[in-house]
Predict the 3D structure of the following.
Amino acid sequence: MNAMTRPLLRVNGLGKTFVLHGQAGLSLDVMQGLSLTLSPGECQVLVGRSGIGKSTLLKMLYGSYRITRGYVSLHFDDGDLDLAELPAHAWHSLRRDVIGYVSQFLRCVPRVPAVEVVMEPLLMRGTDPDEARSKAERLLERLNLPQRLWELPPGTFSGGEQQRVNIARGVIGEHPLLLLDEPTASLDAANREVVVELIQAAKCRGVAMLGIFHDEDVRERVADRLLPLDDYMPRPGMDKGEIRRGEASQ
Amino acid sequence: MKRPELERPPLLEARDLSRLYGPGKGCEAIDFTLHRGEVLGIVGESGSGKSTLLRVLSGLERPDTGQVVYHARHEPGLERTGDDDTIDLYAIGEARRRALLRMEWGLVHQNPRDGLRLEVSAGANIGERLMALGERHYGQLRAAGQDWMGRVELDPQRIDDAPRTFSGGMQQRLQIARILVTRPNLVFMDEPTGGLDVSVQARLLDMLRTLVRELGLSVVLVTHDLAVARLLAHRLMVMRRGRVVEAGLTDQILDDPQHAYTQLLVSSVLTP
């Protein structure tokens, strides 16, 4: 991608506070003033210690967590879209067509075979089932999931096998923006290699990616830029886990 | 890259809808819009008013105040009043309201015995709504019956058996076939997996997910089971003491609940 490419994603002054009503309105500030831009074909990797808010950021960008402060916008040729202002029903199409997400763990639907779990994002767009199936099978083959498992529900699979099903499901839709939450955590070296290849291929297609990778080797090979989250913790130096009491309770 | 089309046309609207039997009993000041192709889950504990709301929405019980507005499909069929094919559900006559429920909508009861005619065959149960729409050809009614028994994973060979001889899970699937055979524009479901064993529930959930996707169904789903809501619903409304306390995307409500009651509800779920 050339330097003229407009960023697809702009995040400005993003902040997140959780208010726990069950704990007398305990207010947890977990993020403050985070800004970033992400361009097509670029992969940025979030770094920072566990609990710093890496997954929280991805979940806010995917709409699973609400945005407390700041704005997130997606750039399109015919105008920008402000995600913080989006009505809930608008997310259905946005997730189907624009923002993909590979979660840390596969949420299994009982009884649904692995290959159908992978196909679903395409079926939701109305892709022909045979075409979706063959694409899903190619991905599962590439990720070295034994063929005898394809028709079985992933509920009983090992962690690494489930993760590969999850990755296949996450990348099959070729979304222009892909959020990756530790997709390589429980994979062996050979399969990590495949994931690195998939990410590099996605970059070449112009996919913008924001990811969390704990494996340093993977991080080195996929990241165009590292984004340390430590800078966006509220009130640096505050002890007791950055907790303030009561402020947002009513 | 062009901006994707994110707007979906509205299908059903509740406007300041109330039906109270007593203070906090029933539903009060409900406002929402269901868009085409959406599954809206209404969750809450028993007594929260979700079943009352469903009865009011589906034309079974007149609200004290407020409106239920249905944006009908642009097809010949029912007579319309007003402009742009919108129907104010309780401004039309009883007969038309019943016709709407029979022809364009479907209601899946929690107890399949309330939704089935137990004394007539499975095939006749599936054919009944088709006949109401004017289908009279015996062969086609039977073919549709067998097709739909297959789709809901019932043995088509049992088309002549009475539902009384089916298990609870099979009866529930038959009820769903009976409703969906006419491709309703809008489906109401009241605890569809309620009385079923867990293993039977899983099968039904998987089947419902597939049917929702394949038929592009629009659904209002009432359930107290958050796991069922997570699997089926795109959006959720949380009810408590007759009012909606929180609404949003399903994962937003379940993973980042804002309201004190929703937080309590979500954190009280046992996960095995």
